[in-house]
Specification:
Order of helices and strands: HHHHHHHHHHHHHHHHHHH
CATH topology of the largest domain: Growth Hormone, Chain: A
Structural class: mainly alpha
Strand content: under 5%
Largest sheet: none
Radius of gyration: 24 Å
Number of domains: 2
Distance between the termini: 58 Å
CATH class of the largest domain: Mainly Alpha
Number of helices: 19
Shape: globular
């Protein structure tokens, strides 16, 4: 008996979906890989500030924090500009390459051409602001690629999988490159020469990623793929009012924003080096363990991301977010109780405890990866819902508006972590791996490492209760968008007939 061929998403849902080839998705997300290379360079910026420009360590940290806030503020303006501009050959490649060129020029100025030339903090800040502008241009355009490439619910989550692959592997590889290859060649010192050589190599590598990303989007980077569906052409222009309406009238976006912000704050605080010192160095007694676990977790995390992509494609971003957020919350509670019941200093000396701790920790990392994939698909759903709601296709505006919250929260993460450790006595000196564990350190570490993520996931679940863009609703959204596009095309044909 012959088996019936499996239905495509278009056949099953009654919607003609826009699909991309797998290689197009894989190449397009290399823009994220390029951005990660610059991310590693920015991690070396504090050394450059001190060695090349004579900026004190405390002032260096303040500069990087304040400029990050500026990064969040400039995003909305750049988002609106990107929405307004339309070229005959599209806009993604223009802003991706233009942003890359600006950020590369700024990096070469800071790392290669200007150090040890007598320029000080004012010059550094001015060029770093230029870097931020180029970085924002490139990142916003890069994050627009997913919604433009595909609106197929089964394929859409795979965009986030490829972005996640580059987000994990590229910084790991290039961080190893700087510490294993370049640093030993300069006496294991972060000298100006070492930083310059690193920057030149990294910028050249980022160009390869960037060109391949442009190849990936070349087929869809056309004006017709950025059109609105509002029949009233007088309302088709994008303005600040649209951003305000997005924030105040788009309920799914509001809930997506709350969910993403809660998760982001928890992850930023948890990733602070001082929190790692408390958890891995003082309580578990092995400071290197956190870094090793981070590397070990990459491959199973990617496996979870691939599985999560399929789950999200089948059940929708809302269902996937809720299901896997519950799993994250349960696993985090289990680890918290485990660490409270067991003497943490004895975990690494007992094989059973070690296996139990690591297994649940890796499962928690994997389930949180699925949530990340689902939320990536959710952003694309929100963009399509806004197209249906207002008649305007606003991928740059949605991305830029979200980035405001993302950047502000990222800036607050370090302050929150440092304030928390100050409450347990570390006011004059920073915690060191050789410090003795105490009850206060245990409770604060667990509160920040597991408790804050638990709170974030709980807030996310509350926000998702009123999020209406489930799998069935998104099918209806796509049908309404298709009908509006057909009506717009019919109106244009009728107008052309009258003019003729």
């Amino acid at each position: 008996m012959a088996r019936n061929p499996k239905q495509t998403a278009s056949e099953a849902d009654g919607v003609t979906y826009r699909r991309a080839k797998t290689w197009e998705i894989a190449l397009s997300q290399m823009n994220n890989g390029s951005a990660m290379i610059f991310y590693v360079l920015v991690g070396l910026m504090s050394y450059l500030q001190n060695a090349g420009y004579g900026i004190a360590v405390v002032a260096a940290g303040l500069i990087l924090t304040l400029t990050r806030v500026f990064d969040g503020l400039i995003d909305p303006l750049l988002g609106l500009i990107i929405e307004k501009v339309n070229f005959r050959f599209g806009k993604l490649r223009f802003f991706m390459l233009g942003g890359w060129a600006i950020r590369s020029l700024a990096i070469l100025l800071l790392f290669v051409w200007a150090p040890d030339s007598g320029f000080g903090a004012v010059f550094f800040i001015a060029i770093y602001v230029v870097y931020i502008i180029g970085s924002s241009m490139n990142d916003i355009a890069g994050q627009m690629t997913g919604p433009v490439l595909t609106n197929d619910p089964r394929q859409r989550p795979s965009v986030q999988v490829w972005a996640t692959v580059y987000a994990y592997f590229v910084p790991a590889i290039f961080s190893i490159l700087s510490t294993v290859v370049f640093l030993p060649r300069h006496g294991n010192q972060f000298t100006v020469e070492m930083l310059s050589e690193t920057a030149l190599t990294y910028v050249a590598c980022s160009l390869v990623f960037q060109v391949l990303a442009c190849v990936g989007v070349s087929r869809v980077d056309k004006p017709e793929n950025f059109t609105h569906v509002s029949v009233d052409r007088s309302k088709a222009d994008v303005s600040m009012r649209d951003m305000w309406n997005l924030l105040t009238k788009n309920g799914p976006f509001q809930r997506y924003l709350i969910s993403g912000a809660a998760d982001k704050l928890a992850q930023v605080v948890k990733s602070q080096a001082v929190i790692g010192t408390l958890m891995w160095g003082i309580l578990l007694g092995n400071m290197q363990l956190g870094s090793v676990l981070g590397l070990i977790a990459i491959l199973p995390g990617i496996v979870f991301a691939i599985f999560g992509s399929r789950y999200t494609g089948k059940h929708g971003s809302r269902a996937a977010t809720i299901t896997w957020t519950w799993l994250c919350l349960i696993l985090a509670v289990m680890l918290t109780v485990f660490c409270l019941v067991v003497d943490m200093g004895s975990i690494l000396g007992n094989l059973g405890l070690t296996i139990g701790f690591f297994l649940v920790y890796l499962l928690l990392n994997g389930t949180s990866m699925v949530v990340t994939v689902a939320q990536g698909a959710m952003r694309a759903d929100v963009i399509d819902y806004e197209l249906d709601r207002s008649g305007k296709f606003l991928p740059a505006t949605v991305t830029a508006t979200y980035n405001i919250v993302d950047q502000v929260i990222s800036s607050l993460g370090a302050a929150l972590a440092l304030g928390a450790v100050a409450l347990i006595g570390f006011t004059a000196v920073m915690p060191q791996p050789t410090d003795s564990p105490s009850t206060a350190i245990l409770l604060m570490s667990l509160a920040l490492f597991f408790g804050l993520p638990i709170l974030g996931w709980a807030i996310s679940l509350i926000a998702m209760r009123g999020y209406k863009l489930d799998r069935n609703e998104m099918i209806e959204v796509q049908k309404r968008v298709a009908e509006k596009k057909e009506a717009l095309q019919a109106a244009d044909i009728e107008t052309e007939g009258v003019l003729a």
